[in-house]
Automatic annotation (TrEMBL):
Protein name: PD-(D/E)XK endonuclease-like domain-containing protein
Organism: Nitrosomonas mobilis
Gene3D superfamilies hit by this protein: 3.90.320.10, P-loop containing nucleotide triphosphate hydrolases
Residue ranges of domain PD-(D/E)XK endonuclease-like in the record: 613-879
Domain of life: Bacteria
Pfam families recorded: PDDEXK_1
Amino acid sequence: MADIIRRLGRDATIVTGNQRLARVLRQRYNQSMIEAGCEAWLAADILPWNAWLQRLWQETIVANKVASNLVLLDAHQERQVWQQILQTIVPSLPWLTDGLTVTRMMVAAQNLRTWKISMDVATFAYNEDSQFFWKVFTAFERSCKENSWLTAAELPDLLLPVLQAGGTALPGELILLGFDELTPQQIAFLQGLAQAGCVPEWLQFSSEPAFIGKLACVDSRVELQQAAQWILRRLEENPDAHIGLVVPELSTQRALVCRMLDEMLCPAALQPGNHELPRPYNLSLGLPLIQYPLINAAFEWLTLPVPVAEITHVSRLLRSSFLAGREDERSARALLDARLRETGEWNVSLQSVAHHASQIERPYHCPVLVQRLKQLLELAEARPEMGMPGEWRRQFSQWLTVVGWPGDRLLTSMEFQVMQAWQVLLQQFVALDWVAQPMTLASALSRLREMAASTVFQPESLPVPIQVLGLLETSGLQFDHLWIMGLHDGVLPAPPQPNPFIPLPLQRRMELPRSTAGRELQVAKTVLQRLAGSAPEVVISYPQRQQDMSLIPSPLIAAFPLLSKEALSGGTHLIWQQLIHQNSRLQQLTEDPAPPLVEHFIPGGSRAFKLQAACPFLAFAELRLGARELGRTQLGLNARVRGILLHRLMEKIWISLKSHDCLIATPADKLDELIVSKVTETIREIAPRYRQSFGARLQALELTRLSFLAHAWLEYEKQRPPFEIIEQEKTTELTVGGRQVHVRIDRIDGLPQGGKLLIDYKTGLSKVDGWFGERPDEPQLPLYSLLFGQELAGIAFAQIRTGEMAFKGVTSDETGVPGIIFYKKLPLTRDYPDWLTVIVIWQQTLEKLATDFIAGKAEVNPKQYPQTCAYCSLRPLCRIDEKMVHRSGDQGE
């Protein structure tokens, strides 16, 4: 390295095989200048191969040594041309223009250039794929020629004769570093430079490792833990050490790698609000630009101006920090999000969002949001139908400015760099004007999104001691300590992946990249040999399992000695969770009961009794603290709305029929007309509340469903003895535990023998058992029974369910209704002396539940764990799972 720094001081040019090596060399050169006491110095001339070629091209343009009308396409422009040609050739197959197809065609075309393969139609007559590629490729070449376009793969062949003729000054000293192999095109180019007097020097760092061995690990997670512990120990021994961690499958394991390194090296970064803390490691693999929250929010806003949007889309924007007024309206926007979810609709219009947000008297009033939304809608309505990328770029910038993106707060260092990368991306998008045709808004957004997804961005950071890299990104780098993980036989050597668009015999004959297993084996040997010489200490590891699949080590590491984890780590390093648990201390908390209820009514009506019986904490949290799950949205109507439809339909039908006698006397055709009429009327009442999710087609389906259910239920009701409808949807109050309770009774039937039968409609499965016990599962009907005393003849569920129509109830006497049981025949009540005792027991149970609720009894005590908690949304609040784990641990001890 010292020799290279001296050469850079003599104006040498270093061309590297990858961007990372160029960055590392520049950092080390700058550091050497600082250590030498220099206050200013010329920047080192270090460039990756492609950047160097582009600089040579720019110099020849400035020197007027090539035609001035030639345009060098960047990667995005080249992809745009490929996509347009594909759309022209196969307009009926739009899936062929997807990212993978275009990428493989571009790689195939690049390989033809870089491996200097002669191209003719006979060669590509191999199969349908190669014939199709040849058709598209020749169209691409023709389009480039007609428009004077060049691709990056053509640069070496075009530059070489110009450079040999003295078209621009060549480096006095040219050094190549970090190339595992050179393509035939690169070899020819460098040989041509040598003939012109610029002889390149190919350097490779290598050293004999003083320590090398392999370690078997259970799986990738354990493997990463071992590597992180080893890195921590080496860093403790020498904080200035250069440490490398090579992860062959870094793209898929990136999140796990970051998590494990944070747990061991920077645990504070895992705490809320600390995600921006500097890490002692750097990943060579960045994220696609679109995955950064700042850019993702921009696309969320750009795709918003549509007639309706999914509630999840709107919800993300309401909670986004990259929007004007967020700090002032944070709470109101969260409440607005909750309000929109309560509608149950999957789609919501922006006008509806603005309407709710403009309600001044509501806690979800958001004036800034309303103003921004209205301005955005006005701009969106004035947009052109078609436009070039440059025009759409201006539109997009206006839209983002109107909504206040990227927000009011100061951007972090990383966000600022991401913002700069976004501006560069927009410039590249505008550059598509050279090659693109007018496009719609949807096409422009899709193209910009593709560009953001294909642009991998890694924010700049200060020099750090630990580098995390992929296998091929380590070329030319040297470390003090190196750990290479994940070397099972499925990774090294890599399986061949020949390009489907180049004839396979041609790929094998020319030994194109990824074409044969033999070539991949040779590449793997070269890479492993280089890695083994990249540090004095090298550890190689491999996982033995991946989920349910057994793995074996790569055969290329068989000769390395086997290591033990104890010898490597020198002991076990506890991660931060283990340290916290190890140093935990019990804290005695004084009892702090919930305050008693001061209101004169019990909130929630009959639901308060159901929740108190299920779990006192659940009743307190939901009905007194207001801790409720956000409304659930789904495609179509949710179960609650469909239940409302059925209740309303039954009410309307029985308003017309009034009694069993009338039901029996109504002719079948008239009954069918009545059902259809009432179903239609019910749907028309409900539909305006759900304009987005309850359209005409769904209304027609619901008409069929409800008509079928109503007809089947009325046929079932015909089997009953005579009855008459006394009242429906009765709203009233009763006093329990000294507090008023608001209730609504679905239906009250009068029986011929006297007395009243209370009926509650159910669309799900129901059981009579839920009415009994100290903590009844379904206390609703027993609660209603307290209103009637000796008038009560019984209570029953009316289970209206396809294929399972049934009454399920209990009565004071035999009624002849299938499913409704005389209390003396019911196992739970047959020992009671009379019917009044049943009612008294219900009253005592409900009084106890009411008294507990009023007194503030709110302990976490589910009736039956875990069944009671299976669908509860408040488990993170009550922490019942942690409590049960602790209890089971105590019992185990």
